[in-house]
Amino acid sequence: MSYEQDVMNAIRQKIGVAKDKKIKFISLDKYAATLPSATNKKVKDLIAVVYAEGAIVDGKEEMALFQTNLILS
User: Fold this and answer.
1) Which long-range contacts (CB under 8 A, 24 or more apart) does 33-41 make?
2) C-alpha pair distances (Å), 26 with each of 29, 42, 51, 58
3) Angle, CA 18 vertex, CA 12 and CA 10 arms, to 5°
4) Is the Cβ–Cβ distance between 52 and 7 less than 8 Å?
5) Mean pLDDT of the chain
6) What integer pLDDT is reported at residue 67 of this predicted model?
7) Which residues, in sequence order, are CB contacts of 69 under 8 Å at separation 6+?
8) pTM recorded for the entire structure
């Protein structure tokens, strides 16, 4: 486990984004729409980091309890 800022700095270093630049995020829905199963395209050499925070709950809900974002490089 790490602090959020430590994780963000590690990600910035790995993807080559300067510390003073903002990391771009997309919603989980937009990310899911780009997956090969959703687009019928083959994709290789891609890495996604899914970042989430909040409670983990059991059950089947159609609506998400928490907003999720993903990092774009």
Assistant:
1) none
2) 8, 21, 11, 25
3) 20
4) no
5) 74
6) 52
7) 25, 26, 27, 28, 51
8) 0.44
Question: pLDDT tens across 43-72, in order?
Answer: 677 667 777 777 766 666 655 555 555 555
Residue-level pLDDT at 72: 55
Return d(Cα 40, Cα 63) in angstroms, integer: 26
Rounded-to-integer distance, Cα 46 and Cα 48, Å: 7
Beta bridge partners of 27: 69
Q: How crowded is the C-beta side of 48, counted as CA atoms within 13 Å?
A: 16
Report residue 60 as tokens: 């089947």
